Amino acid sequence: MFNRRKFITQSAVAGAAALLVPGEVWSAPFQEDHIQPLENNPIVISTWDFGIAANAAAWEVLRNNGRALDAVEKGVHVPEADVKNQSVGYGGLPDRDGKVTLDACIMDEFGNCGSVAALQHIMHPISVARKVMEKTPHVMLVGDGALQFALEQGFKRTNLLTAEAEKAWKEWLKKAEYKPVINIENKNFSPRKLPGNEYNHDTIGMLAMDAKGNLSGACTTSGMAYKMHGRVGDSPIIGAGLYVDNEIGGATSTGVGEEVIRNVGSFLVVELMRQGYPPEEACKEAVMRIIKKKPETAKEIQVGFLALNKKGQYGAYAIQKGFSFAVCNKESQDTLIKGKSYY
Ligand code: ASP
Q1: Is the CB of 246 under 6 A from ligand 1?
Q2: Domain limits at 269?
Q3: Which end of the chain is less packed: N or C, by CB atoms within 10 Å?
Q4: Total structural domains in the chain?
Q5: In degrees, to the nearest 5, what angle opens at C-alpha 155 toward C-alphas 151 and 160?
Q6: Average pLDDT for residues 226-246, to the nearest whole number?
Q7: Which one of 101, 203, 220, 335 is the catalytic residue?
Q8: Is residue 266 part of a domain?
Q9: How far is CA 35 from the centre of its chain?
Q10: pTM for the structure as a whole
Q11: Can 203 be counted among the known catalytic residues?
């Protein structure tokens, strides 16, 4: 029997197929996202204020006609090595046993991907993830196996627990409350403000399109502070913390990883863009799924999505206020945008 609802859905899918044709985008029902005309690529976008410094490193690759994959790897090296950044790489806050464990993943324009989870003692987990992608038949290595592989590949063993992070952990131990804390946002937020010392949260997710129009993404974090030893968040999970489809676009996430995993968040955002949603609307819809399923939980947590489509349009949406993202292209290398939010 003819089903009208099904017909509309199929029409939408047909519309999405038209998205693949250069020059057309189905955006009529939605508010216009930030548009980056195709001739103006390359572009790189990333989560939070510290994305500005990371984008600058990625931009060096992109402006020299480098590959988006190399750009995102180089870009996220910056927060990974930044001792002041307590949520990514070196200097990251440890788990409840005092161990700094890192999660990271990377994905290229061919759909190749690599990931490491609960990796200790290595400054640049994103580069280990890339080696997993390029040198093994696997997608993901975890824990001791990931460390063994990293050392075999020539990565140096490093103590990632800084005196400041250890001090903060010992302070936490006094009460040892095991409760995911909502993000402490930067109260002094102002657009285009260069970051200072206020790196108090989160994962860096980065998406780039190079001069050839190819997309790649990277996502890296020390995860939730004082998590259970062995806890893995969304950031190294392909489809949750990051997803890239070179025909459609890419998405990445930050915030409480469990909710992102439960909703396969980044994959959902990309699939919504495939159906014609502009990036911000796709991010919003993914956030709404989380809120609709657990409205009470959602009041207490932050989750933010960031997306870039094949046209160079980008957008973001979060549950809570304060989610910022950084944009770098030919016009401006240090734009910081305040993402929209449900609350
Ligand atoms: N998504 C990360 C995790 O759940 C943490 C964060 O972005 O704040 O590990």
Answers
A1: no
A2: 25-341
A3: N
A4: 1
A5: 100
A6: 97
A7: 203
A8: yes
A9: 20
A10: 0.86
A11: yes
